[in-house]
Q: What sequence folds into this?
């Protein structure tokens, strides 16, 4: 088990280095077209060949990883802050505030995620720039993915409010922000951190699903999800198996996250 | 029991009211709401165009629009799809059975596989079996539904099986965790020390503790199943509500999309409610 965890850490560290050094490792820009060689096979200049528009697949994979693996943690941070706020308020105040927050949480948990995402995505204007589309996609993930985490934080905050040290602090005159800052936040930090780490692979997978359906990041900007769209040309996958590399990278990265999160609470 | 059902139904009504309000607001703020294609019809007189505009203006009053929307929902009128020009109810009648059949298959196989592997790893303690089960669940939990559907399309395997393989890891991990926790309880250790066999320990000591919580997962698994079926139906070209939702999103057909989401929400909330009730019933019968 230790060897597997070590491998997972190595994979994630290597991925982080690759993502940060994409600019130096990529032979060309992600949008640069080699018009004279569309659909080229792998070569020394283009390690994974080129796509139907003559763009270097290796460069697109590196920049796609950069987009997905940088923005998913940001979305996870946003969702954790939201979950901390809603769950924390519900657990701290209790009573009607808690009931109202739980109703909101129930609402978000009842609607299948992908339905909610594509519904909200469909409301947005069609003529958004690639940069805006990537921001909107990950902002939506962060905005809509907080409910499960909020329930965990609410339960944690509620337990803390019943604990003896909080009673003692209250009896000593601590209340409001001081109580939250000195007693609740330090004790909820572990749960918040766990929710942050759990959200990252969930968001990468959801973006991949959206991208594969053509509802994610707009061209020419690549993401791990939008790169999966190339697999839809199923006839070409057998003769060109290197097209499967983005999917393999995605599975390896998410599996590494899962191995490290294995001991954490499993969120459904 | 009456108190439980009253509370549950009240929660269901409140969640659906909130969902319908959000849906109505989305339709109201969507680009193009205030314009109507009919205004471009050269055959219409200026009075007719004015009448259409007046009707649209009345809809811009949000409380009025929401009240009308709720009234039509209560009547069972789910509106008409703009892109397909067909009543949403009719579209649902055509597509829902396919999705429900695939969902039932995915849940049955996913649960069977998940529970069987969780019980197997917990009962026999064979390292190879645990390694294989963890590896399998780890792989499928890390695979996007759309990508797995593409692989299944290449291999010409049934798409519902892809959905089953994506539901299975959640069931396996949750059930395995619960069984593990339950089997470490003092009374289970005592039973084992007294010589009870693994199946007897499972049936008489572990299952009564773990099963109520596993049953609670039933409702959630329906939501997971519907979520994974959407990309699978799109990629595999299965004429279900997932594919319909994707077509509606591509055509920006918001009335269809919002009503589909409402129906799916209703199904999920009802399933959760039933699994909660089953959990309570199971707990009572064990007590």
A:
């Amino acid at each position: 088990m230790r060897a597997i965890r070590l491998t997972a850490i190595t994979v994630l560290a290597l991925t982080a280095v690759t993502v940060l050094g994409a600019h130096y490792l990529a032979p060309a820009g992600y949008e640069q077209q080699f018009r004279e060689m569309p659909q080229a096979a792998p070569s020394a200049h283009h390690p994974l060949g080129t796509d139907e528009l003559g763009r270097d697949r290796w460069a697109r994979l590196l920049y796609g990883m950069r987009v997905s693996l940088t923005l998913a943690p940001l979305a996870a941070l946003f969702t954790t802050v939201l979950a901390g706020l809603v769950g924390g308020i519900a657990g701290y105040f209790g009573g009607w505030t808690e009931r109202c927050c739980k109703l909101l949480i129930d609402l978000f948990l009842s609607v299948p995620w992908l339905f909610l995402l594509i519904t909200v995505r469909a409301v947005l204007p069609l003529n958004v720039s690639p940069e805006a589309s990537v921001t909107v996609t990950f902002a939506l993930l962060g905005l809509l993915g907080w409910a499960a985490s909020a329930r965990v934080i609410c339960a944690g905050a509620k337990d803390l409010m019943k604990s003896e040290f909080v009673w003692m602090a209250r009896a000593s005159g601590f209340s409001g922000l001081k109580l939250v800052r000195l007693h609740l936040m330090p004790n909820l930090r572990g749960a918040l951190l766990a929710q942050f780490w759990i959200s990252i692979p969930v968001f990468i997978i959801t973006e991949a699903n959206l991208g594969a359906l053509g509802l994610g990041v707009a061209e020419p900007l690549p993401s791990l999800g939008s790169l999966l769209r190339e697999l839809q040309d199923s006839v070409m996958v057998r003769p060109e198996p290197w097209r499967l590399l983005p999917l393999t990278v995605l599975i390896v990265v998410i599996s590494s996250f899962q191995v490290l999160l294995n001991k954490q609470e499993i969120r459904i | 029991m009456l108190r439980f059902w009253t509370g549950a139904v009240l929660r269901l009504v409140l969640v659906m009211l909130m969902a319908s309000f959000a849906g109505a607001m989305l339709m109201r703020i969507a680009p193009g709401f205030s314009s109507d294609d009919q205004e471009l019809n050269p055959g219409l007189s200026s009075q007719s165009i004015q009448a259409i505009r007046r009707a649209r203006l009345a809809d811009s009053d949000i409380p009025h629009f929401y009240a009308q929307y709720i009234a039509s929902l209560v009547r069972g009128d789910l509106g008409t799809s703009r892109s397909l020009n067909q009543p949403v109810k009719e579209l649902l009648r055509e597509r829902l059975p396919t999705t429900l059949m695939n969902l039932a298959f995915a849940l049955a196989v996913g649960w069977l596989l998940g529970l069987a592997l969780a019980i197997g790893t917990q009962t026999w303690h064979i390292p190879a079996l645990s390694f294989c089960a963890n590896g399998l669940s780890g792989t499928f939990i890390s695979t996007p539904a759309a990508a797995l559907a593409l692989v299944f399309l290449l291999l010409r395997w049934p798409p519902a099986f892809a959905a089953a393989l994506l539901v299975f890891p959640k069931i396996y991990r949750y059930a395995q965790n619960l069984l593990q926790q339950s089997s470490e309880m003092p009374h289970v250790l005592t039973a084992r020390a007294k010589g009870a066999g693994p199946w007897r320990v499972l049936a008489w000591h572990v299952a009564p503790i773990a099963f109520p919580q596993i049953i609670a997962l039933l409702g959630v698994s329906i939501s997971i199943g519907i979520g994974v079926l959407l990309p699978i139906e799109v990629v595999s070209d299965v004429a279900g509500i997932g594919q319909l939702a994707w077509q509606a999103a591509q055509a920006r057909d918001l009335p269809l999309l919002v009503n589909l989401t409402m129906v799916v929400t209703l199904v999920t909330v009802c399933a959760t409610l039933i699994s909660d009730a089953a959990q309570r019933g199971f707990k009572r019968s064990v007590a």
User: Anything to note?
Assistant: Chain A has a mean pLDDT of 86. The CA atoms of residues 227 and 240 of chain A lie 15 Å apart. The two ends of chain A are 24 Å apart (CA to CA). Chain A touches chain B through 45 residues (CB under 8 Å).
